Amino acid sequence: MTDVLIIEDDLEEANLLKEMIEDTGTDYKVCSIIHSVADARIWLMKNRAPQLIFCDIQLSDGLGFKIFQDLSITIPVVFCTTYHEYALEAFENNGIDYLIKPIDNVRLHKSLRKYSQLKELFGEANNSNYNKRFNGGIPYMNGYKSSLLVYYQDKIIPISLDQLDFIYYNNYQVTVHTQNAHYETRDTLNNIFATLNPRDFFRANRQFIIHRKAVTSIQQYFGRKLLIGTSSPTPEPVIISKANASEFLKWVEGLKSDAVTMPLIMDSARFIG
Asked: Which alpha helices (H) appear in 82-141, and where do they start and end?
């Protein structure tokens, strides 16, 4: 039985969500309903941890994110709200999904399926071990990831980092791009970049992480910036700031001695206009 904690200050919505969860025909059981940030923090400190949390974002005494501050809790969370602007922060706080109210059965089932797929993917019957792995506790070869988990047609699949050309952030969404496709991920650029080998990946700016193999040209740009051409078209130009230009060129030069030669042509970059 999967214990589910609901954190919701509207009693009617909380009871409706409880009914929807327990009527899914699966093994989900709501262990408690909490109505405020303060009460949720106390409950989580005093009780056995649930395996999944559904949490409203705007509670009567503050944002739901405050519940998890300073608590060593790594329980996956489905955030529920009537607002779109908290999506990025939600996925930085153990979020596995972001539901816009009113919640319907179709979206609820998709969220529960995502949770089940993550649990099956890590093969953990023990929830505490699963949570550690889900939240970045997997030991990586040489300290870095070799693949990323992405979403594709309601499935979670691993993509080898060798296939990546770049990772792109726009409008609260991070997408992973290969030569022939792109995929959604629920993580942030900061979290992803922290797990990547800096020999292969460079944080070009706030929107792009680029793979060394994808760099095809470097062009001088306005204000001593650099315009980077890539092997796959990008949604917008990849621009290196003046402050990071020198570091980028050193990164490129340091890789040129590798067995794999990277052609660098001082020419215009390719991008989708």
From this structure: 87-91, 105-122, 127-132
Burial (0-12, 13-18, 19+ Cβ within 10 Å), 117: middle
Task: Please give the class, per CATH, of domain 141-255.
Answer: mainly beta
Domains of the chain, residue spans: 2-137, 141-255
Closest by alpha carbon to 60, among 84, 92, 29, 36? 36
Close Cβ partners of 152 (under 8 Å, ≥ 6 residues apart): 183, 184
Angle (CA) 235-236-239 rounded to 5° is 135
| Helix 11-22 / helix 105-122 crossing angle, nearest 10 deg | 60
Using an 8 Å Cβ cutoff, are 139 and 128 in contact? no
Query: Which pLDDT score is estimated for 230?
Result: 94
Q: Which CATH class is domain 2-137?
A: alpha beta
Q: Which amino acid is located at 115 in the chain? A: Y
- Unique residue bearing structure tokens 């030069």: 253
* Cβ–Cβ < 8 Å for 60, 68: no
Backbone angles phi, psi at 238, to 5 degrees: -95, 110
pLDDT, tens only, 156-190: 888 889 899 999 999 888 999 998 899 998 888 88
Q: Record the pTM.
A: 0.50
Nearest to 155 by CA among 113, 105, 188: 113
Distances (CA, A) of 47 to 8, 40, 41, 43: 18, 10, 10, 6
